[in-house]
Every structure is written in structure tokens, then in C-alpha cells.
Design goal:
single chain, 535 residues, alpha+beta, 3-stranded antiparallel β-sheet, 13% strand, disordered C terminus
């Protein structure tokens, strides 16, 4: 306890013991927001309370988990960038049980089809099919037996006349790209580090528009909303031109002007001129209903009616559903896309070789902003930039971010999957939140064959190394050994957070001491071996 006889100024200058405990936990990489769960060991029948890391990706929530996730992404990027062998992705042969389930599913489908032809009720057959589909998934099969059952809307794939054409090479069944052999016989496998930006919306100085009145905030908002689709188009064009299955690891970061831009590590190499040509020819068209005119605004908003959806408050007519609005768009021969997004002129292309300082620097740069939100680039001490961010958020306020966005009611269209309580300007998607600045996509984009491992498998690799280094190679890895259950708030079996942090810090101290001892032993062995060679 603090000595109350000390002067108040001295007592207030003393650090809080609880805050010191949290800082020490951060120093040792302990999660400061652990989630307590109840765990049952099915082998022993013992219940225990276990702290699970929160898994936060942002420093503001938990710096320890954010740092751990950043290091995991760096390991994933490093492992897949300069692979010299094809990733082996060959499905296992189906088992007898899996074959039997599919045959049984075929029989049920035939019975259901027969019931439909006879005009009979198919509820029982549908329930049986649903149960078998669940068993198929549990038996270790991916996807659905029927595949995609919802028809996909397609529009003309003819390229725009104002977009340059691109060469198309015959696809080779490889993900590695080209290699080069020097005169001394050494083989080099270069890769690329590419940076893509969005176009200009007006002159900017120090991240702030010189003239906010002429700055195109509407276009900036729409470009941010659809940036992820533009990146998909760039990758498609890149693979067509490259002629092989290009693999990439990319991160989305904010520029100082608050527009998203992309850093991409690409396995293999292409001429810089071709990459810039691909960027210039890449675009994405947004075929959505028009939003140039607000049909409902202010207090005059559509009203919800059960069984019908949203109605016009004056006429009582049901608003167009999302599918009906797209049908009208498809049948209109003079229709134009709501928005066309393109990449900017600034395209940076850099060649990188494996094992060089440049490669390590690029990997660090790719993960530089992963622990920060898009809004962290905002200089809160700069009033001009705060005003710039406020104008950007206002431009996003009534802009539809997706087919399910409540802002479609403002333009006379029911959002996809409409439900009561939706209000224009109050969409809960993260795209409309100031911290995301319109970009609602993933911050890290990794192709399927990048490292031939999922993020969970990379995490398990790191855990296995630590467990073995700590002398615990027999740590159980059976995923079915434990049953996990959440604990209600205020459960008496859960110790206070401070006590749990102290226990975790003590455990980390033991781990570090053991690792230091192992390093000392390894250094001693190396020194002995060196002395033996000298003798």
C-alpha cells in the first residue's frame, strides 16, 4: 500500500502498480486482453480455465498479439517469395466412406426429383439431403456436391475502347517464373516488388488538398470502396500476360492523402515495361443501379412492412428489390456502369533476389503498417488533415458500399437481404467508419499457392519449434482431445486479469531463461569445436 503520509504530489508521481504489470506483460509478449475459456481434456476428464490470446491485429488493442501476427506474416511472406520448387497441392484419394456418402446423396437426389415430378411435398427429402451434406463435410470433403447452384450474372466481357489491349501468352502449368543462368553457371531466380497507387483527385501538398472545393472526394470515395476489385483485375491481367500462375503476397496501406495503395511481392519476374502496361490497361466496372439522384431523403424515408419489404411512404408501392434493379440494368442497352476505377500513373517495379538485404527490407516494408489501422496515417495534430479526413468520411456517408448497404434505400432500391431498421447514412459496414476510410477489404492478400501452407499451419510450425526448444516434443497435438466452452462474465472460477497477467509473465520468464540456457550451451559447443579444430 502507498504511504499516505507522503505528499500528494509525490504519490501522484509514482507509477501505478497495475499499469507497470501491463507494461511488463507487453515487454514479455503476453496478451493483455486474454479471453478465458473452459477446457475439458477428454482423456483425463479434467476441466480447467485457460487464457487464449485475443489475436488482435492492431497495436491499439493488444501490441503483443499485433506483433506476433506481424512476425507470422513476415515468415509467411519470406517462405513463399522465392520458392524453387512447385508447391504440391494434390488432393488425397477419396475413401470408401466418402464414396458411399456421395452415392447415397445421389440416391436421395433422385428420390427428391421424383417427388417434385409427382407434385409431392419434398420437405422430408430436403431435410435428409441437408443431413447427408453435413456428413459429407464432416467426412473430410471440401465444398458442395452440387457446386455453385446460384446462377452468376454476366455482362459483356468486351474490353472498353479507351483501355489498351494486352498481349496474352499460353499458360504454363507452373508458379515459379523464369530463371537466369550466369556465365559461371550460377542460376538466379529473381522476383518483383511492385507498388500500385490510385489516380490523382486534385493537387495535394503534405497529404492535404490545395483546394478542397475542387478535390474530387466523390471519386476518391468510390475508388476506395472498390479498390479490392481493381486489385483482383490486376492479378487476372498479370497472369494472362505472364503466361504462368503468378503467386503474390500483398498488403494494402494508406497514403498520406488517405487513399489506399498496394505493395505486392510477386514470385517470378516480368519486364518493367510490361508490368506498367498491365497497370495502365487494368480497370474495373461497377454495374450497380444509378445513384445520381436521391429518391428519399431527410425525414421522408421508406417504411418497412412485414412480408413485403420497404414501401414508398407516399404511394405505398413496394420498392424494387436488388435483383429486380439489376434485371432492369441488364435489359437496358444504353446502361452505363455506375463507376469505373483505374490505377494511377505511378507504378513502381523493383527486381529482388532471394537472400539479399533488399529482399529483407521489402518484407519489412510489406508488414510495416499491418499493426496500424488505415486511419492511423492521419496527423491528428494537423487541423487541415483532420478536415480532409472529415470531408472524405462525409463523401462516404451515403455512398453504397455493397449490395447489402442500407444506403440503397436512399436511391429507391431495397438492399440485398433487406431487413427492418435499415436507415440511409447509418450503414454499419467498416467501410463507412473513419478508421477504414472506405476500404473494407482484407489488409493482407495472399495467393493460394504462395507457400503451400495456411496461416494456421505457419503458426503451428512456429509453435512446434518453440515447444521442441523448450524440451517438450511430446506436447499433445490431437485437435479432438479438448472441448472448449466460453465462460460467462463474472464467473467466480476466473481469477482477476492482473493475476492472470502475472502468471503469464512468470511463465514467459521461465521460457526465456530456458532459451538463454540453450543458446549458452550451443555457443559453448561451437567454441569447443572451434578450439578442437585449432588444436
Amino acid at each position: 500500500m502507498t504511504d499516505r503520509s507522503l505528499p500528494r504530489a509525490i504519490r501522484q508521481a509514482m507509477p501505478q502498480a497495475r499499469e507497470v504489470a501491463v507494461e511488463v506483460a507487453k515487454q514479455y509478449g503476453v496478451c493483455i486482453r486474454p479471453v478465458p475459456l473452459k477446457r475439458l481434456d477428454v482423456h483425463t476428464g479434467r476441466w480447467e480455465v485457460v487464457d487464449v490470446p485475443c489475436g488482435a491485429t492492431l497495436d491499439a488493442k493488444c501490441p503483443s498479439c499485433a506483433k506476433r501476427n506481424r512476425q507470422l506474416r513476415m515468415a509467411q511472406c519470406r517462405e513463399g517469395w522465392h520458392l524453387d520448387h512447385e508447391p504440391a497441392i494434390t488432393p488425397d484419394e477419396p475413401t470408401d466412406e466418402q464414396r458411399w456418402l456421395v452415392k447415397f446423396r445421389a440416391d436421395l437426389q433422385a428420390r427428391r426429383d421424383q417427388a417434385v415430378s409427382l407434385g409431392e411435398d419434398t420437405a422430408d427429402w430436403d431435410a435428409a439431403i441437408e443431413g447427408v451434406d453435413a456428413e459429407i463435410h464432416e467426412a473430410g470433403m471440401r465444398g458442395n456436391v452440387l457446386g455453385h447452384t446460384v446462377p452468376k450474372r454476366t455482362r459483356s466481357t468486351r474490353r472498353r475502347q479507351d483501355a489498351p489491349n494486352l498481349p496474352k501468352r499460353k499458360m504454363a502449368n507452373t508458379t515459379l517464373g523464369r530463371t537466369f543462368r550466369s556465365s559461371d553457371g550460377k542460376v538466379y531466380r529473381p522476383s518483383l516488388f511492385v507498388t500500385l497507387t490510385l489516380p490523382s483527385y486534385g493537387k495535394v501538398r503534405d497529404g492535404v488538398p490545395v483546394d478542397p472545393e475542387t478535390y474530387d472526394y466523390a471519386r476518391a470515395a468510390r475508388d476506395a470502396l472498390h479498390f479490392s476489385k481493381l486489385v483482383d483485375r490486376f492479378v487476372q491481367n498479370l497472369r494472362r500476360v505472364a503466361g504462368y500462375d503468378v503467386q503474390y503476397f500483398a498488403t494494402v496501406e494508406p497514403q498520406k492523402r488517405l487513399a489506399p495503395h498496394l505493395h505486392m511481392a510477386i514470385r517470378g519476374t516480368l519486364p518493367r515495361a510490361e508490368v506498367k502496361q498491365i497497370a495502365a490497361a487494368t480497370y474495373h466496372q461497377v454495374w450497380w443501379p444509378p445513384t445520381d439522384k436521391a429518391v428519399f431523403d431527410g425525414d421522408r424515408l421508406p417504411i418497412w412492412q412485414d412480408g413485403a419489404g420497404y414501401l414508398d411512404p407516399d404511394t405505398g408501392e413496394v420498392l424494387l428489390t436488388w435483383d429486380e434493379a439489376l434485371d432492369q440494368l441488364d435489359t437496358d442497352q444504353d446502361a452505363r456502369p455506375l463507376h469505373v476505377i483505374r490505377l494511377g500513373d505511378q507504378v513502381d517495379v523493383k527486381g529482388v533476389l532471394a537472400g539479399t538485404p533488399d529482399a529483407d527490407q521489402c518484407i519489412r516494408y510489406l508488414s510495416k503498417y499491418l499493426t496500424k489501422s488505415l486511419g492511423d496515417s492521419l496527423d491528428t495534430d494537423n487541423p487541415a488533415q483532420r478536415d480532409h479526413a472529415a470531408r472524405m468520411v462525409e463523401a462516404l456517408r451515403f455512398e453504397p458500399c455493397s449490395p447489402t448497404c442500407s444506403n440503397w434505400l436512399r436511391y429507391g432500391v431495397q438492399p440485398k437481404g433487406a431487413k427492418p431498421g435499415m436507415t440511409p447514412g447509418a450503414c454499419r459496414s467498416k467501410a463507412h467508419k473513419p478508421d477504414h476510410l472506405g476500404y473494407a477489404g482484407r489488409r493482407v492478400l495472399v495467393s493460394r499457392k504462395w507457400s503451400n501452407k495456411t496461416l494456421a499451419e505457419h503458426r503451428q510450425d512456429r509453435r512446434t519449434w518453440v515447444v521442441e526448444a523448450l524440451g517438450q516434443p511430446d506436447e499433445p497435438a490431437d485437435p479432438h482431445r479438448y472441448v472448449w466452452k466460453p465462460l460467462p462474465a463474472g464467473d467466480a472460477n476466473v481469477p482477476p486479469l492482473a493475476m492472470r497477467l502475472l502468471r503469464s509473465v512468470a511463465e514467459r520468464q521461465r521460457w526465456r531463461a530456458h532459451m538463454a540456457q540453450l543458446r549458452a550451451e550451443a555457443d559453448g559447443q561451437d567454441l569447443s569445436a572451434t578450439e578442437g579444430r585449432v588444436a
